[in-house]
Design brief:
Layout: E1 4-17, E2 20-33, E3 37-41, H1 48-55, E4 63-68, E5 71-72, H2 78-87, E6 88-91, H3 105-115, H4 122-135, H5 152-164, E7 170-174, H6 182-199, E8 202-207, H7 210-214, E9 219-224, E10 227-233, H8 234-239, H9 244-251, E11 302-305, E12 308-310
Helix pairs in contact: 3-4, 3-5, 4-5, 5-6
The structure holds iron/sulfur cluster.
Iron/sulfur cluster is lined by residues 244, 281, 283-284, 287, 289-290, 294, 299, 312-314.
Amino acid sequence: MGEVLIEVKDLKKYFQTPTGVLHAVDGLTFKLEKGKTLGVVGESGCGKSTTGRAILRLHEPTSGEILFEGKDVVHASPKEMKHLRTEMQMIFQDPYASLNPRKTVSQLIAEPLILHKVYKKKADQDARILELMKLVGLSERLVNTYPHELDGGRRQRIGIARALAMNPKFIVCDEPVSALDVSIQAQILNLLKDLQEELGLTYMFITHDLSVVNCFSDEIIVMYLGQVVEHASAEDLFEHPMHPYTKALLSAIPIPSLKGKKDRILLKGEITSPIDPKPGCRFALRCEYAQEKCFQEDPALTEYTDSHFCACHFCDQPK
Ligand code: SF4
């Protein structure tokens, strides 16, 4: 394994609700090497966005460890956290919602530079803004335009420029293309890939869409109701999926094939409540292979083949 940038151990984030405790993230563990991309996939409400926010402490973790270059993020002081936030950034799903509509492109990109008091001279700051605009493919002539005058792709480029302003090492990309037209999605994905190569960035790429994450990730984590159900290299996960939930997600990807349409696995059954969940596999009510044991014991995330982990009592048995 190469140099580890970020290590997460047994991360939990619970929320108190009027009806009980919501287990949004329930025991997440992984290591991420410098310059690599970890894809985090799952349906809406599986805890993937909460995971990204908890790692950056935009949500305070309930328990667990987060080490960034060996530094303890969970117990970092406000001053240490201010510095860590320059190294760990986030790109949001909806660029329009995350940008102040009353500010111009240059004012929006300037915000992190002003917050961290990077430049004393305005001319230096303006030069950096133009440099960032160029880096993300925004034309200089857009410097005084407002977000509502731009299309979704350009707005997302502003979000990326803001995230890059402080020269971060790690970026959580939270569904960065899901609000964009299909034609623009590829442009933004290519931009993120180019920036990764150019700047040596490390990404956590959160998405509900396995087809997006496949071409982008080195490793993939599949989450279901706050827990990791499968973790493998992107190649291995696509070639040899083990968990019934991963197989269902993969079957939903439209792949044009001359051999005809592949069978889609339709998930039926109730979704288990993530509020005060009972022991047992959280996928059991929707799993066609569920047996008695599945309703009684939590399946542990277990390494079955080299660096391929799965949390299912029966995933090594032929189906
Ligand atoms: Fe299905 Fe049981 Fe495996 Fe859960 S542990 S995925 S219910 S077979």
